[in-house]
Amino acid sequence: MALSLNTEQGLNALNLHKVPPLGGGGGTPIFITGTGTGIGKTLVSAIITEALHADYWKPIQAGIAEGTDNDKVKSLVTNSSTTYYDEVYKLKLSASPHIAAREEGDNIDLNKIIEHYKTITSKTLVIEGAGGLMVPLNENDFVIDLIERLQAKVILVSRNYLGSINHSLLTAALCRQRKLDVAGWIFNGGYQHYEEEIAGWSGYPKIASIPFTNNINSTFVSEQARVIKTSLLQYL
Ligand SMILES: Nc1ncnc2c1ncn2[C@@H]1O[C@H](COP(=O)(O)OP(=O)(O)OP(=O)(O)O)[C@@H](O)[C@H]1O
Ligand SMILES: [Mg+2]
Hints:
Distance between the termini: 13 Å
Strand order of the largest sheet: 4-2-6-1-7-8-9
Radius of gyration: 17 Å
Helix content: 25-40%
Largest sheet: 7 strands, parallel
Bound molecules: adenosine-5'-triphosphate, magnesium ion
Number of strands: 9
Order of helices and strands: HEHEEHEEHHEHEHEHEH
CATH superfamily: P-loop containing nucleotide triphosphate hydrolases
Number of helices: 9
CATH topology: Rossmann fold
């Protein structure tokens, strides 16, 4: 299929808007998850949000004293059309969300997140998860259960470090087992040849590779957004 560089045309051509609507915008949300915490989900979310002029939502944020991902993305994205939705759960403790919530006498309820999601009217929404797929949200549900409930398309982030092949393939195996709709991988950090290994073994394509930088700022994000846009539209 010939790809258009016009984001809206590209998304329509790729049927991104044609999945049964759950959210108020009627589109398929893009859920950013990956191999774990601190691997670059927020940076990648900012780049994708910028590339697609999408809206951004981090429904569950733990460790708010260290700053929120919503604020980070706001500071990195420069297009003026992006809407940033409020978190549903903002938890003080920097810990797994189920532990942070328990600490505050709260309990993360997926129904509450879904109800909130239904009020969101974005056509193209980037949702950032917490940690990786098997992070517990409460006594019964994990991040992967939230992805299923949201009927989201998944982008997997893998940071390049020794051991990332194992973490990446475990993540991919779970996605396959649960039949998630995975668009592909975005690798982050200094290039390593095992990006191709992970794509090959997992069967999910490499969408893009984000280089290491000493300067994470809005210029870097808009440059990377420009670089990955065509590939992103191809795989979404
Ligand atoms: N390509 C990169 N070059 C340099 N530093 C990076 C790069 N990607 C991420 N970092 C740094 O690594 C840290 C973690 O990145 P980020 O916050 O995006 O991870 P995360 O997966 O969103 O974490 P969390 O699970 O807490 O949401 C940040 O300090 C970020 O600035
Ligand atoms: Mg983050």
